[in-house]
Design brief:
It is a single chain. This protein is of the alpha/beta class. The chain has one domain. Helices cover 27% and strands 21% of the residues. It has eight helices and twelve strands. The strands form three sheets. Strands 6-7-4-2-8-12-11 form a seven-stranded mixed sheet, sandwiched between helices. It has a three-stranded mixed sheet with strand order 5-9-10, with no helix packed on it. Bound molecules: coenzyme A. Coenzyme A binds next to strand 2, strand 3 and helix 3.
Length: 256
């Protein structure tokens, strides 16, 4: 795959880009990503993870989305989530992250998150008890409360799950299923739990890309380039405060 068109990317390049964005030791961030967007990364997904962990240091926490939910989930077809084995569909970087011994994954049956770092437990524990996937007690909102960031590597706002947090807080009319689902959760000890939860409704096409220019214009997002990829770093709580206000005024602002 190494041709003259494809840049070669090393851990130092990624760490430099992250620092250019303003990331520092002790920071917390949720990383959505495309590995191939960067170019050819020496060492693959592990190199990206190492760079992230290096920049936030031992006092910082890196989270990745390890989502498993599908459009078929619902009362008629409850999801069965095994925290140890259910594969995520959010890409090579999250699935590689999950294989690290120190990674801990939340128990939400559709919108789980995995973390490495000292704030992981505080951010992820009890996610399975959140009635909705991305609401005020979910890791997405807790990260924002702690002053954390969303980082998008080589992808756009369509992958920014924290936008669903804004939809939930603004109580938009299309985001959640109307009936609860009894989801099956299998924990790290192999114990089976049932949780009655309200799941994501996949029926409404969104255009999250709409927020991109606004985030930049309002100074809520910074952009840096690494290899072929744009890295977008968004202040999570600032985005939530702005976007919830917009959605309360115009609940279908994000719909196509
Ligand atoms: C779907 C998505 C993951 C696809 O991105 P991608 O770059 O094509 O795929 P991955 O990140 O999984 O990386 C694997 C790919 O990287 C490439 N790759 C493999 N080794 C590589 C290396 N060393 N360096 C660079 N690229 C490499 C390959 O093309 C590989 O695909 P293959 O295994 O099919 O050959 C991405 O577009 C996306 O949407 N990411 C965000 C997901 C998310 O967080 N969603 C939340 C929704 S609310």
């Amino acid at each position: 795959m190494r041709t003259s068109q494809i840049p070669s990317v090393a851990k130092t390049d990624i760490a430099l880009g992250l620092r250019q964005l303003g990331l520092n030791e002790g920071d917390g961030l949720l990383v959505h990503s495309s590995l191939s967007s960067l170019g050819y990364v020496h060492g693959g997904a592990d190199t990206v993870i190492d760079a992230l962990l290096e920049v936030v240091g031992k006092t910082g926490t890196v989270l990745v989305p390890t989502l498993t939910g599908t459009e078929h989930d619902g009362p008629e077809q409850p999801p069965i989530f095994d925290v140890r084995h259910s594969p995520c569909w959010t890409g090579r970087i999250p699935s590689t992250f999950l294989q690290r011994q120190e990674a801990r994954r939340s128990l939400h049956p559709t919108h789980s998150i995995a973390g490495i770092g000292p704030m992981t437990a505080a951010l992820t524990e009890g996610h399975e008890d959140c009635i909705t996937p991305c609401g005020p007690d979910s890791p997405y909102y807790r990260l924002a409360e702690l002053g954390g960031y969303v980082l998008l590597i080589g992808i756009g706002q369509d992958s920014n799950t924290t936008v669903h947090t804004c939809e939930e807080l603004a109580e938009v009319p299309y985001h959640l299923q109307s009936q609860p689902t009894d989801a099956v959760i299998i924990d790290y000890e192999g114990r089976r739990h049932i949780r009655r939860l309200t799941l994501h409704d996949w029926g409404t096409p969104r255009q999250f890309v709409r927020i991109d220019d606004e985030l930049l214009r309002r100074g809520l997002m910074r952009v840096a380039r690494v290899g072929n990829a744009n890295l977008r770093l968004i202040r999570s709580m600032a985005m939530i405060e702005w976007l919830v206000g917009v959605l309360r005024e115009e609940p279908r602002y994000l719909c196509k």
